[in-house]
Design a protein that fits this description.
mainly alpha, Rossmann fold, 2 domains, two-stranded parallel ribbon, two-stranded antiparallel ribbon, 4 strands
């Protein structure tokens, strides 16, 4: 419906894997993202199915009210607060003897965000050449592996800022940015505010 009425024009979007080809053919002007559970830019969201719509709802709650409220909501529904990986793990044609190594690689990296992760390491985890891995990542996630790592580390840093009073130096270290200057740079670049401003904004919303 969102695509049909034009709200997704020139935006990234997703839908259920069963309708990938139909969606891409009917709406070529939409930047389709294949291997994600949902797409949300802070204004408009769409999901890859009924359960993925709940993941999207939790993301909206997380953005508006923080991790604690989102986690509480997830617990009330007896759900995981956040599911790693994309919808490729559910696609019928991808159910093989070996698990989807690309999705598993995303989970592997997500579990190690606080450590130094080289893109070549991720390619090795996925059992791909670096060139093939970069191409697969771009087609599946609509961003480079490095951009994805930054986004995941930003999510982790936001959570740390919300749930404790650690210094910015410690938040940078535990979220994988290593230096507070790098953390501040990426907050400014992607969120248009500083880590301190983000923490103050979250605290004001929680009161």
């Amino acid at each position: 419906m969102l695509a049909e009425i034009g709200l997704l024009d020139n935006r990234p979007a997703t839908t259920h894997w069963l309708y990938t080809d139909i969606f891409k053919e009917k709406y070529p002007h939409i930047h389709y993202r294949q291997d994600v559970l949902y797409q949300y830019d802070g204004t408009i969201g769409c999901s890859a199915g009924s359960s993925a719509a709940i993941d999207l709802c939790l993301q909206v709650i997380r953005d508006d009210f923080g991790y604690e409220v989102a986690n509480y909501s997830a617990r009330r529904m007896v759900l995981a607060a956040h599911r790693n990986g994309g919808q490729s793990q559910f696609v019928e044609t991808s159910v093989q003897q070996k698990p989807n190594q690309f999705a598993a690689t995303l989970d592997w990296a997500t579990d190690r965000l606080a450590t130094k992760i080289e893109i070549n390491q991720m390619a090795q985890q996925a059992n791909m050449s670096r060139r093939t891995f970069d191409r697969k990542f771009r087609s599946s996630m609509d961003m480079s592996p490095r951009q994805w790592l930054i986004q995941q580390r930003l999510h982790l840093a936001k959570r740390l800022l919300e749930v404790n009073n650690d210094s910015i130096d410690l938040v940078a270290y535990h979220s994988g940015f290593e230096k507070p200057e790098t953390l501040r740079h990426n907050f400014r670049k992607y969120l248009n505010l500083s880590p301190t401003q983000y923490r103050q904004q979250f605290c004001s919303q929680s009161k």
